[in-house]
Design a protein that fits this description.
This protein has about 110 residues and is mainly α. It is about 80% helix and about 0% strand. The chain contains 4 helices and no strands. It is flat and about 50 Å long. The N and C termini lie far apart (about 40 Å).
C-alpha cells in the first residue's frame, strides 16, 4: 500500500509521468477503467477458480473438472472467427438480442 501511495504521489507531481493520472478526472473514463479492471480480474480468475469449484463443491475428479473447463474455453475460441462475420452481417444489436433469446440456463 505504501508503494502504491508513493507511486501515485510521484505520478501526480512529475511534469511528464509515464501514466497520466489526471485523465481519471473525467468521470466516464474513471468508471470505465475501474469497471474494466474488476471485469478483467474476474475473467482472468475463471480458469483457475472453476476447476476448484467443481472439485470442492461437486466432488468431481480433477480430470472431469478440467475437461469441462477445457470444453468451455474451446467453445469460446471456436466462436470467435464467426463473431466478426455475424456482427458485420446482422449488426450488433440483432446478434445480441438473438444470442440472449436463444440462451437457456442449464
Amino acid at each position: 500500500m505504501a508503494l502504491i501511495a508513493i507511486s501515485i504521489r510521484h505520478l501526480l507531481r512529475v511534469p511528464a509521468p509515464l501514466v497520466d493520472l489526471h485523465t481519471l478526472r473525467t468521470k466516464s473514463f474513471r468508471v470505465f477503467v475501474g469497471g474494466g479492471t474488476l471485469f478483467g480480474m474476474t475473467v482472468g480468475a475463471v480458469p483457475f477458480m472453476l476447476p476448484l469449484l467443481f472439485q470442492d463443491v461437486f466432488g468431481w475428479s480433477p480430470v472431469k473438472s478440467g475437461a469441462v473447463v477445457l470444453f468451455i474455453f474451446v467453445g469460446n475460441i471456436g466462436i470467435k472467427p464467426a463473431t466478426t462475420f455475424l456482427i458485420n452481417r446482422f449488426g450488433f444489436r440483432a446478434v445480441l438480442v438473438t444470442a440472449t433469446a436463444a440462451w437457456r440456463p442449464a
